Structures are given as C-alpha cells and as structure tokens.
Amino acid sequence: MSQYKRTLITSALPYANGPVHIGHLAGVYVPADIYARYLRLKHEDVLFIGGSDEHGVPITLKAKNEGVTPQDVVDKYHSIIKDSFARFGISFDVYSRTSAPVHHETASEFFRKLYDSGKFVEQTSAQYYDEENKQFLADRYIVGTCPKCGFEKAYGDQCESCGTSLSPTDLINPKSMISGNTPVLKETKHWYLPLDEYEPWLREWILEGHKEWKTNVYGQCKSWIDSGLQPRAVTRDLNWGVPVPVEGAEGKVLYVWFDAPIGYISATKELTPDWEKYWKDPECKMVHFIGKDNIVFHCIIFPAMLKAEGSFILPENVPANEFLNLEGDKISTSRNWAVWLHEYLDEFPGKEDVLKYTLTANAPETKDNDFTWKDFQARNNNELVAVLGNFVNRALVLTQKYYSGEVPALGDLNDVDRQTLAEIGKLKADVEKSLDTYRFREALKLAMDLARLGNKYLADEEPWKVVKTDPERVKTVMNICLQITANLTIMLEPFLPFSMDKLRGFLNLGKLDWSELGRTDLLAAGHQTKQPELLFEKIEDATIDAQVKKLQDTKKANEAAQATAKPAKENCSFDDFMKMDIRTGTIMEAEAVAKTKKLLKLKIDTGIDTRTVVSGIAEYYKPEEIIGQQVSILVNLEPRELRGIMSQGMILMAEDADGSLKFVSPVDKVKNGSEVR
Ligand SMILES: Nc1ncnc2c1ncn2[C@@H]1O[C@H](COP(=O)(O)OP(=O)(O)OP(=O)(O)O)[C@@H](O)[C@H]1O
Ligand SMILES: [Zn+2]
C-alpha cells in the first residue's frame, strides 16, 4: 500500500477557443480517465478534476475577429467541450470553468496572499503599446520575427516554429495584431514571481527528489533549471481575466498561466467543502495529467506558486505525454487539422471505446506519435473485433448453445487449465504495475493479453469437437472461458467502460471491484447468462476512406487559403489591350480529344461565326455539362493546330488557388458576339 490516503487527479484545462481534438484526448484526458477509473475500481478516495481555461489573449483576439464578446466565445466552446467529454465518458468528478465566480475569488485570494506576504517583485518596465487602439500589447497581441530561428510570425510569448519562449521585446520588427502598426514602448507596472529564488529548491525537489518522473518530463525540467530561471510577470495589461486585486492595478489582470492552474483548486472547491483534504493534506497524492508544452507550468511555475503560498501540497508526479500528430502533420486548431471529438461522436455512434482504445494503444507516452485512420481501422478490426470480441462472443454463444446460457460446473482440472487460470493472477499483477507507473499503453496491451489467453485456450481445447466425445470435459472448458470473460470485465473496465458495461449485461453480472480480479469463481455454476450481441463491429474501408477524404479536403482548403495572388505583370499600353478582340460566345458542342486527358474540342457560336476551339479544361468540366454555357473568347488569336485540330481562338478561364479552372462569363446572359472590354 502506498503512503497516501487520497489521490487528486488534475487534467490540463482545455483552452476554450476551440473544441477538443484527438491530440488533447491522447495526451491528457484518456490517460487521466483510465487512471481515475482504475483507482475508483480499487475503492480509493480519488477526485478527477477538469474545467475550461477561459482567459488570455487568444480568446480576446478570436472575439474581436468574430465581432462577439470574449464571454460569447468561451460560453460556446465550454459547452461544446463539456458536452463532448460527457458523451465520450471522461469521468470527471467536476468540470468547471475559469470564468466562474468561485474561480475569480480563489485566484484573486491566492494572488493577494502572495502579494501581502511579499512574494512578488514589483517592477515598472517599458512594454509595447498600440497608440491607435490605446492598448498594451501582451503575449499574442504582438507578432514579429523570432530572434532565434527567424520565423516571421512569432508571438510575443512564444515562437511556434522553434518553441522558444519569448517576451515581446525579444521580437525583431514587432507589429500589433490589432492594427498592424509598429507599436511604441510605454512604461507600465507589473508583478513578478522571482523564479530565480526558487531555483535551489526546485533543483532539490525535482532533480534530486523525483528521479522517478518520466524521462521526457525530468529532462525538460532539468533543462529549464540548468539554463537559469528568470522572474516571471504574473500580471498583464488586459481587460479579460481575473482583475489584479491591488490598488493601482486598474486595467490589469492575472496572467492566464497564473490563473489557469489555480482553476484546479477552484474546481475542487466547487465540488466539495472538503477540498482542503485534497489540497492541503500531505497524505493526498496529487498527479497532473498534461501534454509536453505544459511541463514548465506544472513542474516549475505552479509548484513555485504553491510553495510561495505555503499551505498547499505539491504534485507527486506529472506524467506528461509527448504529442499526437494526425496523418503525419501536427494537429492544429487554427488549420482545422484535427479529428474533433464532437464530430467523431456524431459520425461513429456507439464507438467511444474504439477511439479510446486506439488512442491508448498508440499513446505518445515516450515520443510523438501519429494517428492514422488506417491504424484506427486495423486496431478495431484486428484487435477489438478479432481478439476481444471474438473470444467473448464464442464463450457466450457456446454457453447458450450447450447449456441454454447457464454457467456449467467446473470439473477436474488438468495442467493446461491450472496454468491458464494462474495466468489471470499474473496478468493482474503486471497490469497494476504498469498502471501504477503511468504506462497505460503497456497496461492495455497486458489487459488484452487476457483475451488472447482466452482465445488460445479455446482454440487449443476445441470444445466444439470435444463435445461429441466428452461433454463433461467441455463443461470445465466453458466454465474457465466464462471466468476469463468475467475477469475481463474488471481488467478492461478502466480502458473500455462502455463495452465492459455491455459485456456485464450479457453475463448478467454486476460491476466488480478490482480486488476481485484474478478470482476463478466469479460466476457460480448455474448462473444464467444472456443471449449476447456483438461487442465490436468491423469497420469497412468506405468509412475510413470518407474520413481520409475529409482530411484531404481540409488540406486543399488550407492550401487555397494560403495562396497569395501573383504580383501584377508589367504595364501594357491601351492600344495593345485594344488589339485583343474578346467576344461572348456559347458552347454548342463539346467532346473529349482522343488520347488526351486535358483537352476538349468545342464548337463555339461567337456571334460572328461558328468555330472550333481546343481548350485544356477536360479535368474540370465534362463535355455534356457545358453545352449551352456562355463564355468569353479571344477571337483574333492566331489559329494554331493542337493534336491535329485547328483551334481558332481561346476561351478565357480563371485559375483558382488549387489550380482548377472556371469559366469567365457574363453574369447575365448577353447576345453572342458582344465585345468584352
Ligand atoms: N497534439 C497533442 N498531443 C498531445 N497533447 C496535446 C496535443 N495538443 C494539445 N495537447 C495537450 O492538451 C492539453 C490542453 O490543450 P490546450 O487546450 O492548451 O490546447 P493547445 O495546446 O492550445 O492545442 P491546440 O493548439 O491544438 O488547440 C494541454 O495539456 C496540451 O499539452
Ligand atoms: Zn523561433
């Protein structure tokens, strides 16, 4: 048993400027949920905390762009996020938000306590100011060139290209995000947490005291500490956030990364009056689930804040994950490169566990990983359907067939039986060890080994053959298969809660505790099981192809949005322009030019005559679609031969950003032969 009486699980507060995607799930919420469900199955005293992070500059910028208030933005996404988590079965004990009054109060008090006990350094410095909008430019209100890598769109707080954390005055050629103007420097007062003073303590606490932390986490902490910690401003000139509760701080709010982690405390307060049992008692173990970009905030800044305050416990572990990518590209909310949870839930009803399974089996625990729809399909078809679904289905169906669903009695055991049953206990110990050390991928693989064990046992014992010669023996085999199935409902419960609920229904069995895992008498002889349905269904190629197509469309839309118009060509004289004779005409006939992919042979009524034109539009228009289409045609272009056809003139086309061609034609129909000028 551990030295702890309670566990407080926090999961990073998703930023309420977009919905939740599979990266968030794989990095944070799925492992946190597995851990919470596991501890609950063990009857431990555990709280699982979540909530939306609703302050900070990106939200105010989004509101500005959309012509709504920041509150509108966070209301919208908080409700989408909260609802999708609930549908997906992320089992928060509370899901709060940082715009809630309890949070404003808590964060404000927290700041005030540090302020009153002299933990901050007050400093006036020159900061960028947009004179047109009369506003200081914090964090993402300012862009410029990264001094480290030369990326031209680095933000005032971070370069998204090289990951360096910056302050606005580091940027080369800074520009205001609101007006595009070059900002001026203006004096303003802020409060700083002197992280440098906490350096020796952090070194001791993490580098000496927490060598067991994951290497990616420990490594990042070491690198931050070794490169020297600087005082960090914890306030901003901004009108969206928790107001700085100090006289003379009008127009200032707490820095979003100061207030967000305090959100874990506020959410706990919202949940229970006993919140101090979790936050202030050293017998409580606190674990932060986060992605790698949040490590510095949870391992260095927030602990320094808690330490400065003095009455709070510190995290016992921070099992941060690396990043999940999507089909080879970084997931991005702004580029819409993501699989969105709320869309997945609509498009794959009843398949919550399939996503949870895939994200766990392929979790970015030690390095960045890639989600692909092919892998999703393979995990479902080859593992959930072929291994787990297949085993439990055979066990239940054969029980129906031989015994009308009644659990048969266990007879004499042979060596294989004994080894198989003993394996359940061994797997239990291994799964526990993995879960206790936050190795969820490994834990899931081991738990699935129990289903593999069942499959192998069934295949080796072949009850469908033996039943003809030795029906007594088959009773023992089927009893063992059913005991394995019952054990699966416990072992896989943290990972596949919806499916295990279903499976318990087939077994006609209530929810069992983790402590009962490993028992070989979970189902008594004579217990009545029910007619089973399929636990998992195969996912067909067409379903996967549709998802891949959706992503390809996103990519195309992004490329088109990125494309900038080419610069204008050199001037030409009016006379030169007037030499071109452009008319309106109508396509009378159209056919593909044999042995070419691009060319159509068109017959055009130009008002002057009817003539033949060869046009390179076959990839964009089918011949039958364009008969009767009015077009603009350059009629005095020198005729030329294309593929043996004399082409007399050229149809004008507009080339879109993706290279596709569209007709340039009058908005309203005009008489053929009308001049275009
Ligand atoms: N692709 C990813 N893989 C793993 N974890 C991620 C990924 N994207 C975000 N996270 C984690 O999810 C948590 C919540 O993320 P947050 O709402 O701050 O979004 P974000 O990092 O701004 O992501 P995005 O820019 O995609 O919206 C954070 O702990 C973050 O580290
Ligand atoms: Zn950079």
TrEMBL record:
Position of sequence motif 'KMSKS' region: 330-334
Motif placement: 'HIGH' region: 14-24
Protein name: Methionine--tRNA ligase
Co-factor requirement: Zn(2+)
Similarity section: Belongs to the class-I aminoacyl-tRNA synthetase family. MetG type 1 subfamily.
Enzyme class: ligase
Annotated catalysed reactions: tRNA(Met) + L-methionine + ATP = L-methionyl-tRNA(Met) + AMP + diphosphate
Record: residues binding ATP: 333
Residue positions binding Zn(2+): 146, 149, 159, 162
Main location: cytoplasm
Alphabetical list of Pfam families matching this protein: Anticodon_3, tRNA-synt_1g, tRNA_bind
Keyword annotations: Aminoacyl-tRNA synthetase, ATP-binding, Cytoplasm, Ligase, Metal-binding, Nucleotide-binding, Protein biosynthesis, RNA-binding, tRNA-binding, Zinc
Protein's job: Is required not only for elongation of protein synthesis but also for the initiation of all mRNA translation through initiator tRNA(fMet) aminoacylation.
Species, as recorded: Gaoshiqia sediminis
Cytoplasm listed as a keyword: yes
UniProt gene name: metG
Cellular compartment(s): Cytoplasm
Domain TRNA-binding stretches: 576-677
